[in-house]
Amino acid sequence: MNSAVTIPPRSGTAFRLTKGQSLTVIDPEGEQVSDLVVFNASDLGEVISSGRSLDYASKLYLTTGDPIYSNRSNVMLTIVEDTVGRHDFLLTPCSRDTFRIIYHDEDPHQGCFGNLEAALAPFGVGPDAIPIAFNCFMNVVIQPETGAFTVEAPLSRAGDYIKFQAEMDLIVGLTACSALQSNNYAFKPIEYRVA
Ligand SMILES: [Zn+2]
């Protein structure tokens, strides 16, 4: 088995994933979110779609066995193992604007969005192409009556993971999330393994 790669706190990376390979995203310390985006490696206009994936699943919380669809309704990833069962696919990657608007930071961190933008640039992916991410381990609690939601501490504990299988050749962007609320106010690393 390949060894795990560490993504340092508040950073991100990008890499290729070949059809049939698996990607395991691991929370080594617990309560740490990781934003995942993927693009079709041979046509960057095809990208994961929150709207299509949630629509076709008829639920908000995807887990083992669920496909993740593209904007063209092709399956890009399948979730094959999940030790947590709670992830978010509604909210955008945290960004300078997130920290300015929600946290009122005067000198905001670039967030997952800026980290993804930097990591994906060498692959030819520009910032406007970055979609809603599949937010591994992010715990968004929704009130059924009003739809109001709060971002709560992740349910993941040290060593928990979610494993995906690639259903086409992909460019992957992956972060250790930079937002205070999402990570129970402590920034930790993320690990991943390609096999
Ligand atoms: Zn983030």
What characteristic shape results from the CA principal axes? globular
What ligand molecules are bound, each kind once? zinc ion
Portion of residues in beta strands equals: 25-35%
Q: How does the major sheet shape up? A: 6 strands, antiparallel
| Percent helix | 10-25%
Instruction: Give the end-to-end Cα distance, rounded to a whole number of Å.
Output: 7 Å
Tally of separate helices: 3
Oligomer: single chain
Uncertain ranges: none
How many domain regions? Answer: 1
Query: From N to C, what is the helix and strand string?
Result: EEEEEHEEHHEEEEEE
Strand order of the largest sheet: 1-13-3-11-7-6
**Number of strand elements:** 13
Radius of gyration over alpha carbons?
A: 15 Å
The SS-based structural class is: mainly beta
Q: Name the average pLDDT.
A: 96
